[in-house]
């Protein structure tokens, strides 16, 4: 029957609890009030409702008709059940708002709930209870309270905690104190006094866990209460002060280069102050780091000493600092209950200290590199350097040396080399570089002895330029004479230097003079198209071998002499042929100078213009358009115009001057600035014209004086102004040399450097290099009259 009643009561209580829980103010599980007690020791637990949740105490609630009910939930279970207060020896009991355990067991661990209720009101709260075991040294997982005492502060006491209410004041308990596992007896500065433990002079060695064991009798049984607390010796309040900075300080300067990581530590020491809040923070230009646009991070660490003095370290970090960041103000601040302090960090841009080893290494490396560069530059540009030195610092070799010519040119006549000498070599050396050339076939007078004139010209020249080629050895009779004379002059007197220009490769030769010259002298090689431009290496090598000659005289009078020379040739020509092409109308070309002078001569003297349209102009030129109304235009049609019987040649012959039957029908005399203008030569001829007649007569070749009447009649006119003739040849011409003996079936026009040769009563023209000895030194009047009987000495002037 008793067991049945218990089951019915449990069901009844469960129903009440379920009904009440539906209307209760449940405060939940108060984990902050977790209670830990040792096994086999009494425990006294008050209901938390009256301490923290309700405004009235248990007596008021009980007088108001409220009942306090206890129940619990076992560990690892969810079912709530009422507490059994009918255990043997009344082990669990309640007294007003207190729940007693005399003593506790391990299975008492769980969540306990106290509920205050009546028929209209209900309120409850739960709290955890943990029963723990202890070993012989009182070690357990229980959380221990900490009691701090001041270092060397005088007598300080601690009391055994949480023993009030377990026994009445009339009971005298027995109290024993322990430090760790040792009973407190005969300690130097620690004395036990019942519930208190006195520290006479607290030392750091007094730190540790202290346990008091309280034993008291109750109802014939003896209960033991074990209370353990941690004693911590801390700094004395007499030593407390405001924060103290260890860094930054005035002795340390943070020097960084832009792009490096900037780390500034702020290390502050705080003495122990009870209930004091220690703070450390950074400011950048008066702002907190998070309020700036700088990519900065702050890391903090805290370390405690044995007496709980605190050291806080905050490291301000900027990954890639800029020059602007190094100019900012970085201040660390610290504060506690004693005051607030701050300290600025010295930050500046790092000045790189000179490292002489690096400088020496760099200097040595730079010197070696400079020497290598100079060697390479000299190896590549040595010609330019020599020419620059000669042009600015060299001594003019032409002053007071008694020489008339700069260069005497020796070459194979009637060959391809002749065109190279007369067009390319002569044009660049005279017109571009301003040298005075002596070309025998151009500068010698008719009727002279070849050997004597050759030796005379070589003696009057500063250099002998030999154009080497296979033809030079095979057919260069006069050329070999020139080479031998030049080498002997250089070897014996030393007043002439020989320059070898290899136009084409020459194989082994039996000419000992040429062998000796090639062995001793440097050969300058012509490389075809690569050597075409005056700025090329060939011309620079040739300039170095030439005599040093200042260009000031040439530059001052060159342009004026060019105009005079062109005007002189146009004035002495009957026709001026303008070969029209897009390149002709370039304003900087000599062609435009000739064109403008030709238009002027057409309007003032008897020189007529003939325009040959070789290629059409890309853009119309106003000067050319004006000429179409009054000047003959002949168009070149390419392949159609190559035949001598084409319309082009017929129209051109109609425009050319009509020649008398007494003159040769196979040629017309022509003049071109590209082959006939030599400014020094023009000046020389001009100086000859200014000489008295007696000096002119004496200066001619032996046996070459004309009749007195003829001289007085035509004084002031040169005997042969242009020696360039355009010869029209059909078939195999009798003017062609043996070295160029291939037969042409089609007639063609060729340009040769020609001179008149007296033969009986008429003048014959022969090519350069083929000299016919005149039968008599006297030149016939008819031959001279052929050059001087007209106001214009040339049939046409070619542009």
TrEMBL record:
Signal sequence coordinates: 1-18
What InterPro entries does the record point to?
A: Ig-like_dom, Ig-like_dom_sf, Ig-like_fold, Ig_sub, IL-1_rcpt_fam, IL-1_rcpt_I/II-typ, IL-1RAcP-like_ig, TIR_dom
**Residues passing through the membrane, by range:** 363-383
Annotated TIR domain residues: 403-546
Q: Which UniProt keywords apply?
A: Disulfide bond, Glycoprotein, Hydrolase, Immunoglobulin domain, Inflammatory response, Membrane, NAD, Receptor, Repeat, Signal, Transmembrane, Transmembrane helix
Principal location listed in the UniProt entry: membrane
Return the similarity comment: Belongs to the interleukin-1 receptor family.
Descriptive protein name: Interleukin-1 receptor accessory protein
Phylogenetic lineage: Eukaryota, Metazoa, Chordata, Craniata, Vertebrata
